[in-house]
Specification:
133 residues; alpha+beta; 2 domains; 6 helices; 48% helix; 29% strand; elongated
Length: 133
């Protein structure tokens, strides 16, 4: 009988842990967000933030600059309105790949999806956005 009660307690504990794990997965998925703005390297993006309309100024930033070695080495971000959200390492790789494939030379308007934490985002995807703002 004692062994039977221990087995039931163990099954209940496993069920509780599994339920909590599923809840944690749901919470992390619910934190996924999509930010629309201008893809830019962080070196130049920092300069754009001093402009009256940083997103508009960033839209004129050419792809040729964002792909220069020094600019690319600074990492990438998205400027949305008056906010600059920096990418994680994975996001930097996704941005480099997106820049390599796009035929656009400026107004690099994108949708960035990922998990945001303050002024940073753990990027899961970058897609072209509608040019209309």
């Amino acid at each position: 009988m004692r062994m039977f009660l221990c087995a039931i307690a163990a099954v209940c504990a496993l069920g509780f842990v599994a339920t909590m794990s599923i809840a944690d997965d749901a919470d992390s998925k619910s934190q996924q967000t999509t930010i629309t703005g201008i893809l830019i390297d962080q070196a130049c993006g920092g300069k754009m933030m001093s402009e009256a309309d940083p997103e508009k100024a960033a839209a004129e930033h050419p792809k040729s600059c964002a792909t220069k070695a020094a600019c690319a080495a600074s990492g990438y971000s998205v400027i949305s309105g008056k906010e600059m959200i920096k990418f994680d390492d994975n996001g930097n790789n996704i941005a480099k790949d997106w820049l390599q494939k796009t035929t656009k030379e400026d107004n690099l308007r994108v949708n960035v999806t990922g998990t945001r934490d303050g002024d940073k985002i753990a990027v899961t995807s970058i897609t072209a956005a509608d040019d209309a703002k």
